[in-house]
Specification:
The structure holds 2 protein chains of 2 kinds.
Chain A lengths: L4 E3 L2 E4 L5 E6 L6 E7 L6 E7 L2 E4 L8 E4 L6 E5 L8 E8 L10 E2 L3 E5 L1
Parallel strand pairs in A: 2-11
Antiparallel strand pairs in A: 1-3, 3-8, 4-5, 4-9, 5-6, 7-8, 9-10, 9-11
Chain B lengths: L2 E4 L4 E4 L4 E3 L1 E4 L5 E7 L5 E7 L5 E4 L2 E4 L9 E3 L8 E8 L6 E2 L3 E6 L1
Parallel strand pairs in B: 2-12
Antiparallel strand pairs in B: 1-4, 3-9, 5-6, 5-10, 7-8, 8-9, 10-11, 10-12
The chains are: A mainly beta, B mainly beta.
């Protein structure tokens, strides 16, 4: 079946602009995660949704970052007033449920964000 | 806090060589441990996992054993192929949703 998809695959923007990154999880997966991967580093957790609500947003770096999942499926990560330090690959993952050691997180291909 | 330290790369090997990538962790609770792999041009995918001490995860000829006494989860493969060239990430989760990753180890296998 279809995996996790993310759009766009690449996004180039100018400092100060607003961007939206979209994630389509695997159908039927109730848990959705966002991570950020900077060059040469492993992914870092940003936020996790169980259904429509953000169950843990402790990884969001500041209030310029916000994510929504209004219908419990597609999620959008929103970044306001982008800064050059926001440049990274933004990864989305989904799992059947959360809080279960047997459930695997499946990752999308990522969106590469470049802030000029 | 929770953190993962893995062997720095890059690692370059010849085909059929033995591969070991060291991974140690620090965790506030009782973690599950994972190895993820990222092949060139592809997304992260789970390679193997172990959820309790002394469990061995295995997949595609790779193995890793959860060693609580040494807080380690080293990845091994007895005979690598060119197709194993990838970036390998060790990761842990203590709350079963937030993954904490190491920095990754780039492995290149020469024919």
């Amino acid at each position: 079946g279809a995996g996790v998809s993310q759009t766009p695959s690449n996004k180039v923007t100018e400092k100060g602009k607003y961007v939206e990154l979209r994630c389509d999880p695997i159908s039927g997966h109730t848990a959705l995660y966002w991570y950020r991967q900077s060059l040469g580093q492993g992914p870092e957790f940003l936020i996790y949704f169980q259904g429509t609500g953000a169950a843990d947003d402790s990884g969001l770096p500041n209030d310029r970052f916000f994510a929504v999942r209004p219908e419990g499926s597609v999620s959008t990560l929103k970044i306001q007033r982008t800064e050059r330090g926001d440049s990274a690959v933004y990864l989305c993952a989904s799992s059947l449920r959360a809080g279960r050691r047997t459930d695997t997180q499946y990752f999308g291909p990522g969106t590469r964000l470049t802030v000029l | 806090g929770n953190s993962v330290t893995q062997m720095e790369g890059p690692v370059t090997l010849s085909e059929e060589a033995f591969l070991t990538i060291n991974c140690t962790y620090t965790a506030t609770g009782y973690p599950s441990l994972f190895w993820y792999v990222q092949y060139p041009g592809e997304g992260l995918q789970l390679l193997l996992k172990a959820t309790k001490a002394d469990d061995k995860g295995s997949n595609k000829g790779f193995e890793a054993t959860y060693r609580k006494e040494t807080t380690s989860f080293h990845l091994e493969k007895g005979s690598v192929q060119v197709s194993d060239s990838a970036v390998y990430f060790c990761a842990l989760s203590v709350n079963d949703y937030k993954l904490s990753f190491g920095a990754g180890t780039t492995v290149t296998v020469r024919a």
